[in-house]
Amino acid sequence: MIQDIVQGIIVANECLSGVFYRNYIQSWKEATSNQITVEGKAYDTDEWMNAPSSILSSISRRLHLQPDHPITITRKLIESRFPAPTYQKHNTLFPIVSVGQNFDSLGFPADHVGRSRNDTYYINKSTVLRTHTSAHQADTFRAKTSEGFLISADVYRRDAIDRSHYPIFHQMEGARTWSRSAVPEGTTLARQVWDDLKTIPKHDLVVEDPNPSFHPDRNPLQSDHHSPEEAEAIATHLKRSLEDVVVTIFSAVRAAAAAAGGSSASTSEPLKVRWVEAYFPFTSPSWELEVFWQNDWLEVLGCGVVRQRLLDSAGVPDRVGWAFGIGLERIAMLLFEIPDIRLFWSRDPRFLDQFRERVDGKITRFKEFSKYPPAPRDVAFWLPRSTPAARTPDSTNEPHSAPNPAGGLAPESASNAPSSSTTTNSPSASVSSTSDPPPAPASSSTATTTYPPFHENDLTELVRAIAGDLAESVTLIDAFAHPKTGRQSRCYRIVYRRLERTLTSEEVAGLHERIGRELVARWGVELR
Ligand code: DAH
């Protein structure tokens, strides 16, 4: 019965207004069916569902597994520093995980902003697209199949679209633990860790590490579980392992720069890194590693001594160790001099054919190919008077602008604040990524509709749903309150661009108009 009505609406709408409304109704149909299927796995959806099909249909891309893709080359370069059998590599873990895996198992507090629907894609109240590879830490510890592991995977965060942000990106999680019960007679756990350290290659890096390994207030030792000697040994093993990664990456960067004829300071000065105290709910003490690159300190990764409660609840209470998380896009952008994170998603052979996995580990830098002209269009509107607290650009309305070491979000501050300021299409996510704006509220045509507050991430997502990768950026260019009425005005510039050819002005106008229409329908804005 419902199906028939829907079919009737589809037919009527096709006659009236064509493909746009058909897709619109398709989305609505999916939204009302309360179930989605992703790569053969069925999930019930509920009112928490906010993962658009443009995102779900990208799950199958798995850039970190594509041969000769820069993300794959970067992954393999880092993997080469963590040999088997000590370090087992996991590269095919599925991205849809429970809230328990993504947040609870790691000790994220219930009110952590990272859990909000504004930052995280939910399938239902208890199921999300993983926001980081740490989501698999507890399960991998529980499996007890190796002393150490590396997990590389795609991760998902609701985010801005610009050169360095994309809602899907890739991370690598690393961990190494030692078993207390396996320490041989006559030695200690700390001594065993120091012994293992001898296998890590020496380097000539300049390392600034001004702080003590732990500090009672700023970076506490887990004194109920670890002796100072143990924590010191684990911290040193962790830092040396990661310094080795940095040496490997940046030596490759410099060699590529030198091969390209560069002799700037970045290729001639000694490589310099520094350890900075940090906070993560699942490690203590914790650090970030920064590299001095092109006259600036660049955050590269987050890490620390794994919280014992995590290992206890993963069923390995006799183990102690370290973990780290690193974002692969940022490293790949440096390695290959790729100027825009969106290029990783390109299917253009002019991009893809530039990269080759080489046995000698040499990197060839990206060469810019001719770009077709951008088509900027502005959309200006008044927010509805009824919008309760239409957030301003400088409050939480601001998307993740400061990337964090592990890839996409701002670092978590010592106040335990989460990272709010903080990359064949799926058979099931059947709606094309350029055609499915999320359904508007059912009653949007009535005068009494109350609209949800407008949020910049919602606009970003709407633009992505309608224009897909044809949208290069969405930037707030003007915001003010009317001096008399107090009504809020916003103006955003959307830059459209196609990699393969010039977009026609009709195509751009079509996309832009749809975005305007949806803004009105979903948030009750008044276009100006
Ligand atoms: N999951 C963190 C993020 O996405 C990165 C991270 C930090 C991973 C510290 C770790 C760690 O394993 O120990 O921001």
UniProtKB/TrEMBL annotation:
Q: Which domain of life is it from?
A: Eukaryota
Concerning InterPro entries, the annotation shows:
aa-tRNA-synth_II, aa-tRNA-synth_II/BPL/LPL, Fdx_antiC-bd, Fdx_antiC-bd_sf, Phe-tRNA-synth_IIc_mito, Phenylalanyl-tRNA_Synthase
Supply the enzyme class, top level: ligase
Q: Which UniProt keywords apply?
A: Aminoacyl-tRNA synthetase, ATP-binding, Ligase, Mitochondrion, Nucleotide-binding, Protein biosynthesis, Transit peptide
Q: Which residues form the Aminoacyl-transfer RNA synthetases class-II family profile domain?
A: 153-349
Residue ranges, compositional bias (Basic and acidic residues): 215-229
SMART domains reported for this sequence: FDX-ACB
Q: Which GO terms describe its biological process?
A: phenylalanyl-tRNA aminoacylation
* Biased composition regions of type Low complexity, renumbered to the chain: 410-435, 442-453
The protein in question is named Phenylalanine--tRNA ligase, mitochondrial
- Provenance organism: Cryomyces minteri
